[in-house]
Fold each of these.
Amino acid sequence: MEDDHDIDEEEFEFSRNYFLAKESGGKSGKKSARKLSEIDLLDEQDLRTEVSKIEPKHEKEIASLISSYKSLYNEWAFELRYGFGLLLYGFGSKKTLIEDFASTALTEYSVIVVNGYLQSINLKQVAMAMAEVLCEQLKLQPRSSGGSLKSQQPFNTRSMDDLIAFLDGPHTQESECFVCLVIHNIDGPGLRESESQHLLARIAACSHVRIVASIDHVNAPLLWDKKMVHVQFNWCWHHVPTFAPYKVEGVCHPLILAHGSASQSVKTAIIVLQSLTPNAQSVFKVLAEHQLAHPDEEGMPIDVLFTSCRERFLVSSLVTLNSHLTEFKDHELVKVRRHSNGQDCLYIPLSKDALEKLIQEINQ
């Protein structure tokens, strides 16, 4: 009984001290006048360099964990062979694990790798590559119709529907030919659009396709409906936390503790612009100068840009201008947004400082 009494006294004293501290803090405590904007942030490249120097911890435990996953390779390969898709999730980069699985247990497959963590991905090119690989496999089959395959229409001229039909076709009955599609971060920024996910689901459902993918975003399952999960992708979910750093996947994402990384954005833009023609660079400069001169506007209307470029003899037609704009958009140098009056306007997704540095580099 005495012990219980002592415990009650300790709890009472703790509670009393807690509320007294809160009360005194409310009366005499001063609020900080510091602002988040006053924090001196590092340059993104400097911060990435410092992050790379952090020594890993618990290496033995992580190595043992990865070894336990490797013992599951045969089980995963069995699931793939019988028509399931493998979906790996859990904290940590799964890129190295998936690539090791593909090179170790999928030697009988032809493997196509897609890096979903990139900003833009052309799924038609992916489907074309898969179709070409499958075609080469079928030509090696002793009883396949090799002659008819050689006489078929080239894959680069086919529609997406035709490519999917080829991947799903009953080309041979004697032996199985599969193309394995490995997707690092199927929930990445380059694949999150509904249209991209539905195309991937159609590809995954093809009879000659097997899919291995990873997810990391907490809302990734919201990308799919019931049919996509259970019929088309036919996922087998595997929880495989690796605790590995997202070194490669994180390159495309800005760091929270870094400033706008203007220097890094400028370097990237310069590399892209140097690969374009002098006329294209001049067109980009016209747009950049307009954006700096009119910072309050939502962008530059296409017709205004065309008029300005034609007066400077940079383009002779709207077709020529559109070809330059397509290059800019593909490399994400220029984006389009709807003006408040309903007109589409062009803008460069860089800060004022970054844009000024970029123009200086172009003028050199």
Note: The chain has a mean pLDDT of 82.
Amino acid sequence: MAQNNSAFSDSSVHVDVKDYYGKRLQKTADLKTGACIAPAQPLPAFIRDALKKVHPEVTARYYGCGLVVPECLEGCRILDLGSGSGRDCYMLSSLVGEKGHVTGIDMTEAQLELARKYMDYHMKEFGYKEPNVRFVQGYIEALVEAGLEKNSFDIIISNCVVNLSPDKKKVLEEAYSVLKDGGEVYFSDIYCNGRLTEEIKSHKVLWGECLGGALWWKDLLQLAEQVGFSQPRLVTASIPTIDDKELQDLLGDFKFVSATYRLFKVPRGNTKSCKVMYNGGITGAEDVFQFDCHYTFKANEAVEVDGEAASILTHSRFAEDFTFQPPGGSCEPCNKPKADVVDPFELASQLASKGPKPAAGGCCSTKSAGCC
């Protein structure tokens, strides 16, 4: 837990965000825009069942921009950045099982108070003898300083939180530090179609509504590379609603998108493509597994993937879910080029024209290598 004499301290942005989420917002309906509200879409039954077990007051104070539930959760150690009221932490605590563990970190004491209030309630609801959840007060820019160990988490999730930080590179650096080799950051956030003006970035309500601090989506690609992550893999995207006319006028021609990305801590520089075959069996995706917007794998069908995707699948928790056929084997030639970077605004438009997809965002779970 962050101490008063810690090196990291509140910036004016942190103070404003604490005030907005700790005092001004009392329920989701108090939000002035739809930037922090997940679009309606079908969810797998096991996710719906887990959410039903979360206490109603915890759910009512949830402000995430998209449900973030990656694969391979059983037995995993998961960190939720900006855990807020604890809704996602408790839902995930049900999915990781009693042998798994979920840590939530948040800087807003009022939100942490609410989350801790229902610890016993949820452990009884899940039938656990001992709590598999903890909540830490601290900053997402200073995870190690808050007491989180380096190389200790299998998965890091985040819901509409990174945009609230004034130092997004530091957030990614800290996440990289506490993530295990082969681990993943799976997160939804709000992005912009350009770099915002100082006037917009200094507007307290726009920042609190997840708009004023939105990163230009192309800057995410650069920051991830600088920190050491693999190229961000775009999973899904949607356009949020901004119904408040006063805020719309302030934003002018800037456009925003809610996007889910995967970042992996795996060796970089592997440019060899190869064929992979999904073995099937991932819970919720037994026959078809959507890895990102480039690759949707059907069970027992060989697919040629680019070198970065091959490296991720080889070194991450998905390794046991795939059969690999490297170049030089029966699958030659393997010349799949590096996957093109996808504009999240274009993907959001494409998905909107096709209608909602079941379990968008990769909401599924599995037992596999690495953390299970």
Note: The CA atoms of residues 38 and 67 lie 7 Å apart.
Amino acid sequence: MMQVHISLSGPNHMRISWITLVRTQATVYYGTSPGNCNLSANGNSNIYHYLRYDSGVIHDAVIGPLNPNTLYYYRCGNESSKEFNFKTPPHTFPIKFAVVGDLGQTKYTNSTLDHIAKSNYDILILPGDLSYADMYQKKWDTFGRFVEPLASKRPWMVTQGNHEKERIKGVHRSRFTAYNARWVMPYEESGSTSNLYYSFEVAGVHVIMLGSYADFEPNSDQYRWLLADLKKVDRRRTPWLIGVVHAPWYNTNEAHQREYEGEGMKKAMEDVFFKARVDVVFAGHVHSYERFVRTYKNEANECGPAYIVTGAGGNREGLARRFILPRAKVSAFREPRFGHGQFSILNASHAVWTWHRNEENVAIASDKVLLRSLSSVPACYKS
């Protein structure tokens, strides 16, 4: 039993995922006392094939209902296996998200994860590019073991990036084979038909995880799902609304300019996000950090989302060090450093965003800003 990670799965439930080398029960035993996992839930198992690679047996089981802000202990497969533990998120504010994109599995990634581990976060959001396996499937296994110490203790909510596609024309025609098998997200729970885009709600926050590499044009399933999902949002219950993509809609780095996945999705969906009063949009893809002021149609707008690029988790391709000059007025802060972000939502109206570089041994934020939820700004939002 290895590569354990957890993710939210609908209200008050958690999905536990793990891999074994041989077929075993897809059962999770859990409880609130160490050594006393008196509850259980059965799940599903699957195996995928990629060229000459056969995966281990991938299991996942959904447990719950669970109490908020509670430490649970669990075992995967059988009652004598290794005991893990996780803490459920709070049911109301405050809540803290760790945000990091383009993670990989390098010494820089290790530094990023060390910093995140010290942050006392509740949920991690990863805007795509996880393992950088790039068709070498054993890298998915090393990544699973690499992140297990953190991913088994707090829910990791991820979306796909370009490095997850892993399609080989004429040889392996399916995209996202490993990603969809290994990292099942709550797409069905949110009414989506694809693991590449979904939403979840937690502690007064509605988070929309979009698929930059799934069709997003106005006639697409993803676009129609987004409109339907936003209709379900009640800003009295979830005053904060967050969007997550891989390819950024706003980016003043020289890297990844004029790409369809970013520019095309922005053209298709920016009006939708603006009208919905999305508070902040996190992205990855560009291996650097950049924060924009609240923006709409390339201009500062107090009712638009704050766009933040966090693609500097530690990937093997290195940093994107060159920014376009002169700096655009809407670009508030940018630096080519590895690190992660923390989004601490204090209450229904205010949150603090901080960016933490890896260079410091202690948690020193090189960028910090106080954000107000648009649902609390009368000029922007009328319930």
Note: The chain has a mean pLDDT of 96.
